Each structure stands twice: as C-alpha cells, then as structure tokens.
Request: fold
Amino acid sequence: MILDHEIKLDFSDVLIRPKRSTLESRSQVKLERVFKTLHGAEFSGVPIIAANMATGTFEMLDVFSQEKMFVAIAKHNNKKWLEIFSKENISLYPWGRMLNYGFYTIGMSDQELQELIQFKQHLIKIGYKYDIKICIDIANGYTQRFASFVSKVRKEFPENVIIAGNVATPEMVQELVIAGADYCKIGLGPGAMCSTRLKTGAGYPQISAAIECSDAAHGLGAGIVLDGGMRSPGDVAKAFVANSDMVMIGGMFSGTDEQEGDIVEKSFESNELEWDNGVYKKKTITKQYKVFYGMSSEYAQEKHMSGMKNYRTSEGRVEEVEYKGPVQNVIDDLLGGLRSAGTYIGANSIKNFGKCGTLIRVNRQHDRF
Ligand code: 5GP
Reply:
C-alpha cells in the first residue's frame, strides 16, 4: 500500500484569485468557443452539457440548443432519436440545431453500439448529413474492456466527436485518448445523486482531477469534460479555471420543467404561527418538487433498466428536489455568473479562463448560499 500525502482539492477548497482587468463589462466575456477535435471534427458552442440523467431530455435540448449549450440525451430516451429524425418530422424540428447540440449516449454493450450505427444509417437514408456527437458513459471507466470498446466505436465513427468516461486520473485519460476518445469525462463520486464514495470509498476531488487530467489530455491533443459536483455558477467557473474544456451538470438543472417527471406537491406544518379564529396555529406551507435520481439508484434501475441491472451497482440516491420552473432561469443565472467570473480574472473568453485564472487554496469552505 502506498499513501499519497499530497492533498487533493475539491470545489470548496479553492477560490479564484481576483486580478486587475481591462474588461469594462460582463458582456465582453464570450462564452461560446470553437472546438477542434483530435479526430478532425470541428464544432462550437457554450461548453456546458446537461447530464444524461433525468435532465437528458429532448425538451432540455430544445432550450439548451437555443443557448448553444449541449445535452447528453439519457439512454432510455434513445428511441426518440429515431422518432424525431423521421421524414415526416422534417419540418417540425430544427434538426441541425438538435444534432449540433445533442449527444447520443451509449453504455458499453454491442447492442447499444448497433442501435447507434442504425441511427447513423437512418440519417444517411433520409438524406441528412449526419454529425452525431457520441457520449460513451459507464460508471467505472477503469477496465481494459472499456478502452477496447472505445476503440470499437472510434472505428465505426472515425471523425465524430466522442466523449468517453468516467475516469479521474491521468494515466486512464491517456489510455482512453489513445483508444479513440476526443474528450474524457472526469468524475468519480462527486455527483449530487451519487453514493460511490460512501459505498466504495473510491473517488477523487474534482479540482485536482481537472488539473491533472486536463494536463494529460491536452498533451495528447484531446480534452476533458469535468462531470459532477458543481452546485453553483462559482463552482463551474472554478472548473474552467482548472482547465476543463467542458463541464457536465445534472443536479443544477434538476427540478426544472424540462427535467422529466411530474411535479409533486407537499404540504408542511411550519414553525411560523398565524392567527386563526382567536388562536395561534402553525402555518401550513405548500411546496412543489420533482423526483431526481442517480442513474444507478435502484429507482432508476426499476424505471429504465429492467434486465440490465448490472449497469451500475446501486451507487445512486433518489431525492425530491424543489421545483425551479423553466430551466432558462437556471441557465441565465449560470451564464451571468460565468461572465462575471471572467471580469474578475481579465478573461474575455471562456477559453481563456485557464490561462488567465489562478486558484488559491482556502482553509475554510466559503459560504455557499
Ligand atoms: P451533478 O451535476 O448532479 O453533481 O453530477 C452529475 C453526474 O453524476 C452525472 O453526469 C454522472 O456522471 C453522475 N451520476 C449520475 N447518476 C449517478 C449514480 O447513480 N451514481 C454515481 N456514482 N454517479 C452518478
């Protein structure tokens, strides 16, 4: 056994050092950027992806794509790709926009790869120039089998954008890039609905993971998508300063109209008193919620994955999150925070956050809300 003494850092362990800047307004901070991938694809957008959880819906994609942001469609929604991209629907949907900003998610099974190939053939058949972006997502990307699977997907899709993960250390990033990934998805255990660290004791703090893994990926001409653990716009800004090329977020976009699932209403007796017919009574408050869950929770497995129960062990949680209304509110808050962060470090573009920013270690978790 070896004990690594270097302290690894998470979002709450660092802050962004403010610097002098010549920027005059937040509007000068450009959040859209161009990506040139290792395998020849070129695309542009705001480098934020909604996670392939209950947040990975086509309703989310419709809103996100208008903001030039991305959505990884959840695997259980994959059949809808074929429904939406049918000849009959050609005039109903802005196909180019949906394909530009949507990721088609698969796990590690040959059946899922076959379905993805069928979708590509379908697009060719109906005469659409395909540009599918692919997200290969499994809980633990540390197996040789996973790297071989990434190579297999790369052979079928030589130029398409491929994100693969999850891993959290540089040597595995290098292995996946050599196997064919353009971007490695980084995050072991940070997710809001994740219980991997509790159940297995394995994990890696996200800021250190981003710094170490981006160094490995960039050295090979690839990049990283930092996935999970961001609870506020400030955390997302820190992720970009730590050299993440993109981020993937679930929890912050949960509880919105575009997250799948119904709104449930609950009434509580509060501690506040109100005068009622000559007596003080405890006031009743009604709140609205949506159910949000980890993709490896038993809840998710029952709901979507009957017969695939070994997808992930039950390392996921289920929660009722407060209803937030349209996701546009969350997007506005997030993009506003990022632009403002740019002005604190003199970065006129999200691409320059890593170059312009410095992170400082703090010994106390700053106030979060
Ligand atoms: P969040 O932004 O909610 O903190 O993190 C989102 C990420 O959590 C997802 O993109 C995915 O990588 C991870 N995740 C989602 N569901 C589960 C789960 O059930 N278990 C674990 N270990 N991770 C999950």
